[in-house]
Structures are given as C-alpha cells and as structure tokens.
Give the backbone structure.
Amino acid sequence: RDLHDQVCVGSFSQRNISRFRRLSRGRVATAAAEVGTALARFGPRWVTFLLRTPADVFQVPPSVPLRGRSVRVVTRGLLDAAHRYDKQVHVWTIDDADEMHRLLDLGVDGLVSDRIDVLKDVLVERGAWTGRP
C-alpha cells in the first residue's frame, strides 16, 4: 500500500532532511529543519524563505523563549504566509485540549502531541476524526 502522501518527515538536522529529500525523490513531504523554521519566523526575508524552501511543512513550537519572555511563533501572519506558498504549519508538542482547539481555530494544519487520546477527543468533538472510533 502506498502511503507516501500520508507521511511527513522532520528532523532537527538540515543535513538529514536534505539527504532524505534526495533519497525519497520528493515523494514524501518533509518539514523544515529547526534552522529553517527560525529563519522563517525571525529572518529579515522570511517570506522569500517560505517560497524557496523545499520543505512542505513548518513544524514549530507554539512559542519560544527570547530575552526572558515568551514570543509566540504561531501567528496569523505566519499561517497566512505559509499557506500563500502552499506550506503547512504543524505545532508541537500540544497536550492540552484547550490549546489544541485554539490552534486549530487559528488555522494550523497539524498538531504533534504526546497525548493522542486527548487529540483524538478534540478531533472527534470537532467532527474532524477520520480514523476508527
């Protein structure tokens, strides 16, 4: 069974992602490595980066610490720019149901969670669960 369109591979190593892209010949979606994601959010030319990166997905935390405070990474601006260039945004690691709802309402394309039971309940509640009961 061909499941290439149901998988996204990510890594904190740009070298590993680049190698995987070569080996898979683009058949499997890949996420931007951590450096690419940081550039996409904070770099001076992040919109250009979104357009040019071979990544299909940005996998990001909801916020990052910066100078003693928490800076939100997942914003309407990031989502709009990513979607304009046909890129998805997945957020990690979300284990709280209220935060899952907030991010899904904002328009994220995917959630990474250690609490798959909570995520399933949220998706069932939203009518978005397509798996087995």
